[in-house]
Design brief:
7 helices; 295 residues; 7-stranded mixed beta sheet; 14 strands
Length: 295
Amino acid sequence: MDKEIITDNWQADDDRADGLAKVTGKARFTAEHKIPGLVYGVFVCSTIPKGAISNMILSEAKNAPGVIDIIHYLNCPPVPGYKIQEGKNVRNYQGLKVFYNNKVVSNGQPVALVVADTFERAVHAASLVRVEYETEAFETDFDKSKSNAALLKGNDQYSRGEKDAWATAEVKVEAEYEIPIETHNPMEMHGSIAVWEDDTRLTLYDKSQGPKGVQGEMARMFGLEEKNVKVVTEFVGGAFGSALRSWPHVYAAVIAARKLKRPVKVTLNREQMFTIVGYRPQSWQKIGIGAAKDG
């Protein structure tokens, strides 16, 4: 059979919209876009689980070849969406406010962004940043924490009919279920390229499963009209839900590009994929169900 016909049949019967481009190397992923004047941002991440930054020693990193800037909480330009607003129908930002203050809430939290003229130089300079911390007491033992009512968020209760009737039912089942952590580690790691066309228009190349949501979030956070935010996502190299919202590297790229007035690319390495972007957290449920014998 002619080889051309085999290819045509495969496309007709089993086609994926992006399948052929991906397996033949023609697909262009977020970090592969070529932008004139592009510079590269690499995160410096916290090495403690909880506390505060007491000092940042940046002199060696600043003097490294190719370094353009090091952005951190002391020199980060204001982000309009970080400000808490009062009133009805207000959507205040609930995520990590990257470079907002000196507080550390988790190991691996981005505490600085080193920007250089090449990716390799940015990686090298980031390794030269020294951060001193004041550590605070922390608790990471899930089993210990789940039995501490003071640590549990929310105490929602709903009752209808006879309270706890299930406990005296003719037939009842009680069980506990635990689901372990499941990290999202697709082949394509997260990355963003931010390009300010002018002070009011932003183009963002982003690995995203929801470009429309990214557009709205960037508009709110940076005080822009939504129509002036363009989000480009040509292909997604796997995500499993981890690209359904914007993570700290997206904000960092936009902040740096606005401050430096040039395009900035921020990509995560494999280790950072475990600490900076979303995952399915460990969970525990205790369930009791009761019924009469007739169901």
